[in-house]
Amino acid sequence: MKDEAEVIINGIRMGDGCALTIRVAIEVFAAHLVEKGCGEDEHGKQLCLNYMDRINDIRRAMGIIE
Question: How many angstroms separate the CA atoms of 49 and 16, rounded?
């Protein structure tokens, strides 16, 4: 299995357990957005798209996607 991404928050390097927790939290949030969204109005739809864009930025930085 690939090592967890190096995660540094405010200059503090998080251990693998913290990196794994962050990765899982991001994936759970992404799954929730796909399943439930953020509302049916235009604001909710745009918010959901923006969240997914940021999640994909984080996924790329963590080496989850290319």
Answer: 29
DSSP 17: H
User: Nearest CA to 50 among 66, 61, 39?
Assistant: 39
CB 14 within 8 A of CB 7: yes
Provide φ and ψ at 20, rounded to 5°. Answer: -65, -45
pLDDT tens sequence across 13-38:
999 999 999 999 999 999 999 999 99
H helices of the chain, in order, are 16-36, 42-61
Within a 10 A sphere around the Cβ of 2, how many other Cβ atoms? 6
